[in-house]
Amino acid sequence: MTQAFSSLRINSDRLLDAFNQLALIGATADSGVDRPSLSEAHLAARKWLHEHIEASGFEFRTDGAGNHSAVLPCDEPSAPTLILGSHLDSVPNGGRFDGALGVMAALEVLKTLRENRINLKVQIEAMDFTDEEGTLVGLLGSAALAGHLSKENLEKPRGGRERLVEGMMRAGLTEAGMLSAARKPETLAGYLELHIEQGKRLEKSGTDIGIVTAIVGIWSYKLTFLGKADHAGSTAMEDRRDASLGASAFTLAAREMVMRDFPNCVVNVGKMEFAPGAFNIVPAQVDVSLEFRSPDAAEFERLNQALLNLAGEQAVRFGLGLQTEFFGKHAPSLMDTDVRGAFANACDELGLSHMPLPSGAGHDGQSLADLCPVGMIFVPSVDGASHSPREFTKWEDCVNGANVLLQAALRLGM
Amino acid sequence: MTQAFSSLRINSDRLLDAFNQLALIGATADSGVDRPSLSEAHLAARKWLHEHIEASGFEFRTDGAGNHSAVLPCDEPSAPTLILGSHLDSVPNGGRFDGALGVMAALEVLKTLRENRINLKVQIEAMDFTDEEGTLVGLLGSAALAGHLSKENLEKPRGGRERLVEGMMRAGLTEAGMLSAARKPETLAGYLELHIEQGKRLEKSGTDIGIVTAIVGIWSYKLTFLGKADHAGSTAMEDRRDASLGASAFTLAAREMVMRDFPNCVVNVGKMEFAPGAFNIVPAQVDVSLEFRSPDAAEFERLNQALLNLAGEQAVRFGLGLQTEFFGKHAPSLMDTDVRGAFANACDELGLSHMPLPSGAGHDGQSLADLCPVGMIFVPSVDGASHSPREFTKWEDCVNGANVLLQAALRLGM
Fold this sequence. Notes:
Two copies of one chain form a homodimer. The first copy, chain A, has 14 helices and 13 strands. The first copy, chain A, is of the alpha/beta class. In chain A, strands 1, 2, 3, 4, 5, 6, 11, 12 and 13 form a nine-stranded mixed β-sheet that branches. In chain A, strand 3, helix 4 and strand 4 (123-128) form a beta-alpha-beta unit. The first copy, chain A, starts with a helix and ends with a helix.
């Protein structure tokens, strides 16, 4: 890599200006944004992006899944494409940084490359993927681009079919278009994404950049502890088969076990539902919404077995029945080692500290990881806030991330 | 007590015949009854009772609260009244024995006294109280009779105002009537009730009769454990403030503490509500519906303090906030020692084993306990089933209970 290339930097003021313009669209009173995918606010943000791309002199592209992008072509029209990107949709009442930073940084990288007349061996495309957050389907645009999207995904979306159909009509999208947005793997040189961490590990360790090792997989279950409804006054304590005891003991023990035996994994009991659910009736049934994540496929199997064993043990301990209903899984996605190396070299060159990190959250990269080399970097989130208007990343950290993205793209695209 | 009186027995066949006729009204396919207070089925049962009382040659009475009764007057018109009774209403899809046994046994005692020309020093009244179970207000008829009923009780009934008003219209009752049904304490000689146990203590110990020591009081709270909603993938386990941990640890620890330190008391976590309540979000808030019961006022204060301390400790342990909202209380009601003695003597005379027991459930006696001497006896419930079509008591146990009621009434009324 020549000295000229390695001294290239993005334009912080230009990036900040564009970032701030975008943050006004769907803005909430508490400095957040409310741009659920294909909502009016989200489509307004996309309209702004479309105009901004064309006003910046780039070719604008969209596909059957509604993904929006700017293209910086290379001299060789048949060269594969290195995609840089993220998403403009937010969770309801989310923050300004999640997704938006990655899209605007990708576009800023394109601007920097073009104004410095850098001619890479790949096409570079700055991408805004549709519905990363899952208010409709989740990782929708990237799954469509990767050819993973199925008719079933669209028939039973997690946000409800009605909401999806309304959003598609609003955006002028069709199911046939969605299902035909796949790109051929040979056209893809890779996918790079800059994102905020959504956790505290970088902040706590004082590290500038997290280089993602893997996007964790997610398995989820509904566990049902079954006891017996009894009069909560006249039934002696020792005669009760109280479903709350199994659910409570499992919740505590699962946390302890994961922290002790599976330090790379996380577990969450996000909800319990009690039946009959009255002050004066011993709970006959408690449904537990269980989710756990691991960056490693083999560890997942062990964790899964350990959690199910634990639930069974707690049910026996309190004289309860147990039903387990599997709710679904995403496999963990390993990030490409060459891309990780390019990120690390870029950090070293820029004088930025870095550390390897798994991503506990899902990202569009996991849709693409079996098609092409994929890598992600994180920048620190103040107090780890995520999916909240409190979400905040210092601007210098945002600029650091954009420069690492630029330098990694240069390394991979030369 | 003369030998002639102590050899008196109720007529088992006559009681069984009346009990079975009543059990057909509002009967469900699974041998239970569905007679919520002032429902069509409940009013049909009361119509049957009214006719049965008059066909049996007793004076029928009803009051402004809809309480139905049969009266066996004594020679002295100004003598106070010893009430024997229970209730004909049931919980939704309840059992045949709860309440109905006590009313029919009371009426059978009157029949036995009259056919044996027993002239007591008190009026004897066999009473069916309105809405013992609380599908409308709870202990409504007995509270009205005791003069405890307030306009507020009728304005915010636990079953909802609309349901109460509909029921009152159906039964031809008015608020003014309800509030004017109070009797003067000096007109009451006492209140005796036979009821099924609704627990397993008699069955497990092989005891014929439980002599109630106190009707337990009930205190209830909503405890709210407050944490922080975070991304359940990207937030490290040790950084979470997970409200489910406080709620779960409290639930387990409260049970252990009550069983260890408060063996006469019970505690129930009947419901938890999670917010936001999603698979992939760390619970920010868990509302715990807590109820606890004690037969002893001083112990109540200690139990209350111990439970609130425990909740506070578990909140601190997991870095959570805690809000406590007091939902209400009923004080425990001590049963009269003379009445308990009369029951014990009656059991001894009848060759029946007996044991003292607190009543974990509420009963109409608690409305009357500060007006006149009150006592209750329990007969064994098979498997402790209660508020369920599975509710069952062997007929010989029902007959034993009715004979103890008769003999206690003789002892108290001579």
